[in-house]
């Protein structure tokens, strides 16, 4: 038993090392100029004042973090799939159906869009108030995401 107790700290250290290794950061950061042309055009159009801080590529998906704290995800073709502002802030408009902005303005006055994601059914929209809405691909309101 005494011999076994000598190996307990060594065993613990080995298990901890394996756990840390398995949680290692597999992020693949790439230069901003490696973003597809479509993604770079999106950023210069909708975020002309912001600069790209980092770009992470994982499985053909790019995630750009900007100096203003906004994050934009793009697919391998450079099309946006998710745009998110820091808590309490709104994203720019004009790159998704205008009917979404109209619906939000009419039904949730004073509440802007904090995040928008493209889904198989259309768009998921998170308002700065925390309310989550769903819209069709054409921008028609579907419902509240519960």
What key attributes describe this structure?
alpha+beta; 28% helix; 146 residues; 3 helices
Could you characterize what this model shows?
- It is built from 3 helices and 9 strands; from the N terminus they run H-E-H-E-E-E-E-H-E-E-E-E.
- The protein has helices at residues 2-22, 37-46, 98-107; strands spanning 29-30, 52-58, 61-66, 71-74, 80-84, 113-118, 123-127, 132-135, 141-144.
- The longest helix is centred in the N-terminal third of the chain and has 21 residues, at 2-22.
User: Spans with pLDDT under 50 lasting ≥5 residues?
Assistant: 7-24
| Mean pLDDT value | 87
Helicity level, as a percent range?
Answer: 25-40%
Q: Evaluate the radius of gyration.
A: 21 Å
Secondary structure category: alpha+beta
What's the helix and strand layout?
Elements (H helix, E strand, L loop, with lengths): L1 H21 L6 E2 L6 H10 L5 E7 L2 E6 L4 E4 L5 E5 L13 H10 L5 E6 L4 E5 L4 E4 L5 E4 L2
Antiparallel strand pairs: 1-2, 2-3, 3-4, 4-5, 5-6, 6-7, 7-8, 8-9
Question: Can you give me a brief rundown of this structure?
Answer:
28% of the residues lie in helices and 29% in strands. It has helices at 2-22, 37-46, 98-107, and strands at 29-30, 52-58, 61-66, 71-74, 80-84, 113-118, 123-127, 132-135, 141-144.
């Amino acid at each position: 038993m005494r011999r076994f107790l000598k190996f307990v700290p060594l065993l613990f250290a080995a298990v901890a090392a394996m756990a840390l290794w398995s949680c290692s950061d597999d992020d693949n950061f790439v230069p901003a100029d490696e973003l597809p042309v479509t993604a770079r055009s999106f950023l210069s159009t909708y975020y002309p004042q912001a600069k790209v801080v980092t770009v992470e590529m994982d499985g053909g998906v790019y995630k750009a973090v900007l100096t203003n704290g906004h994050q934009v995800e793009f697919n391998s073709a450079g099309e946006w799939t998710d745009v998110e502002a820091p808590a309490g802030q709104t994203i720019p408009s004009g790159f998704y159906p205008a009917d979404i902005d109209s619906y939000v303005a009419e039904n949730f006055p004073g509440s802007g869009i904090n995040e928008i994601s493209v889904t198989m059914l259309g768009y998921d929209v998170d308002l700065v108030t925390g309310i989550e809405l769903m819209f069709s691909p054409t921008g028609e309101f579907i419902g509240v995401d519960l």
